[in-house]
Every structure is written in C-alpha cells, then in structure tokens.
Design a protein that fits this description.
Layout lengths: L1 H4 L2 H17 L4 H18 L5 H12 L2 H17 L1
Helix pairs in contact: 2-5, 3-5
Length: about 80
C-alpha cells in the first residue's frame, strides 16, 4: 500500500481501478462512497501522508466533521471517476 500512496497520481489511478471494479460488481454509488469514507478514516488513523496532496487531504479530513469527511470521500470518488 505504501508504494501506491507514494505518488498521488498512482493513488488516484489505484482508487479509480477499485471504484470501477466496485461498479462492475454491482455496488451502488452510496456503498462506494461509504467504503471511501471508511478507507479515508483508516488512512487518517494508520498511514502518514507520503506527499503534499495527501498532507492537504489529511488536514482537511482532520478539521472536518463526519458530514464533511463523507463529502471529501464522495469527492475523491467523483474525482477519480472523471479523470
């Protein structure tokens, strides 16, 4: 996982692949967003940011409340779907 997180573009590609796989498996957008939120929570607690983009995301995550964190997770999913 640390290799995937070392470069933000690589992380976005990895996440885009996982979102695509989830959609092919029949997961709803809401389920995917919920999983993205859980992954964000895990990363916040367990993984140190590896680059500037991840540091900004971590700072936003830490100052946000639960609703704002869910918005960040949904936006990350949307970002990788449109890239």
């Amino acid at each position: 996982m640390s290799t995937v997180l070392s470069n933000f573009a690589t992380w976005k590609h990895f996440l885009a692949d996982r979102v695509s796989q989830a959609k092919k498996a029949g997961m709803t957008d809401e389920t995917i967003s919920t999983l993205a939120y859980e992954i964000g929570s895990f990363l916040d607690e367990k993984v140190d940011p590896k680059n500037e983009e991840e540091r900004v995301l971590k700072q936003l995550w830490e100052v946000g409340d639960e609703a704002e964190r869910k918005t960040i997770a949904r936006l990350m999913v949307k970002l990788v779907q449109e890239s």
